[in-house]
Write a structure and sequence with these properties.
8 strands; alpha/beta; Rossmann fold; globular; 173 residues
């Protein structure tokens, strides 16, 4: 696990069931709302600040996801992606990444094609059983409840950047 995590240069995430708990909330006019985890966000920010590529590939299109993406300062957003492999290949080409340099966290059937391709396939604790079969890392946390942060910490520790970034945050004046 740590060998694979040490090679990572990019973290790619699904949204529903990974960055959120998978709930879909709509108002009476059909506007969609999502709830994100602050600790997951802090993990992504730490990866950004230490030079990792951070990306989202999601089949849905949602203004809340765009807002969260911008708020966290992530690198690339692929929304409305009906072909996640095509989006992954585009990311790989743009940032000159090899499959073994990518960690991906997904939770359901549409994510398996990406999980089978990347060097560090990951999922939250509450992912489907089919997804868990392909994951090298299964978080102890559920989607939207700290699974992403746990993965971010793993990657940062394996890269040797965890102490540097956490120390910089703790010792801010």
């Amino acid at each position: 696990m740590n060998k694979a995590a040490a090679k990572i240069k990019a973290l790619v995430l699904d949204v529903d069931g990974v960055l959120t708990d998978g709930s879909l909330t709509f108002d009476e006019e059909g506007k969609e709302y999502k709830t994100f985890n602050a600790k997951d966000g802090q993990g992504i920010v730490m990866l950004n600040k230490t030079g990792f590529v951070t990306a989202i590939i999601t089949a849905r299109e949602n203004g809340t996801v765009r807002h969260r993406f911008k708020n966290l300062g992530m690198t690339k957003l692929y929304e409305g992606s009906k072909n996640k492999i095509a989006s992954l290949k585009e990311l790989m080409k743009e940032f000159n990444l090899q499959p073994e340099e990518i960690a991906y966290m997904g939770d359901d059937l549409p994510d398996i094609c990406v999980l089978k391709t990347v060097g560090l396939p990951c999922c939250p604790a509450d992912a489907t059983e089919e997804v868990k079969k392909y994951a090298k890392f299964v978080s102890s946390k559920n989607g939207g409840r700290g699974a992403v942060r746990e993965l971010c910490d793993l990657i940062l520790k394996a890269s040797g950047k965890y102490e540097e970034i956490t120390s910089a945050i703790i010792n801010r004046v």
